[in-house]
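stage 2 :: seqdesign
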């Protein structure tokens, strides 16, 4: 209980409580850097939220970013109170991926699922080339090897579970100010229930 920190929501007139400000320098620069890093992480990973630690000279704060807000702890002097900072990292190290903010409905695709995704993209490219059809923009780079193929669980209105394969986002939330909800667009390939890769998943 001695090492629990109150989290602040909104603004406070007291400069000490300005949660996203850096008292050691330009507060705008510090705030923009924190928000930019959170936006990039939330935009490039499948996350519901993410944690961050801000170090300002001898003081520190904890942050929890999600798609609509940020919670900010009271600042504390980690020279005088090192246990609080150590406990944060200790507890973070034993958290599950879901507790760290990763979306539990998204996992890495198996080798068979990755092959299925790539074959669909190649079939689409071949068909549009042979029939001189208009292509989805930049689809040639959708299956980029730099981006892992992921498997996304989607539940329909009847409660049935479906799985879709996605790779590089076709629409990215280039937003450095943590506004909006990090909406991304994907070219998705459904996983047939009878497919071999579905049995791999089971």
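stage 2 :: out
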């Amino acid at each position: 209980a001695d090492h629990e920190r109150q989290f602040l929501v909104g603004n406070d007139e007291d400069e000490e409580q300005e949660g996203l400000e850096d008292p050691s320098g330009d507060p705008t620069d510090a705030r923009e850097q924190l928000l930019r890093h959170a936006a990039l992480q939330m935009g490039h990973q499948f996350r519901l939220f993410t944690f961050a630690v801000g170090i300002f000279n001898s003081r520190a704060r904890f942050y929890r970013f999600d798609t609509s807000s940020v919670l900010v702890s009271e600042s504390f002097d980690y020279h005088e109170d090192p246990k609080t900072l150590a406990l944060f990292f200790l507890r973070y190290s034993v958290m599950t991926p879901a507790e760290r903010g990763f979306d539990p409905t998204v996992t890495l695709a198996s080798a068979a699922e990755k092959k299925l995704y790539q074959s669909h993209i190649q079939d689409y490219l071949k068909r549009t080339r042979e029939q001189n059809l208009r292509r989805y923009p930049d689809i040639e780079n959708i299956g980029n090897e730099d981006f892992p193929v992921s498997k996304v669980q989607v539940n329909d209105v009847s409660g049935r579970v479906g799985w879709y394969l996605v790779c590089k986002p076709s629409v990215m939330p280039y937003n450095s100010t943590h506004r909006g909800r990090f909406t991304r667009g994907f070219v998705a390939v459904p996983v047939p229930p009878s497919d071999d890769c579905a049995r791999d998943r089971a």
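stage 3 :: structure notes
- Strands lie at 7-8, 49-56, 59-66, 70-73, 76-77, 106-108, 150-155, 161-166, 189-190.
- The two ends are 43 Å apart (CA to CA).
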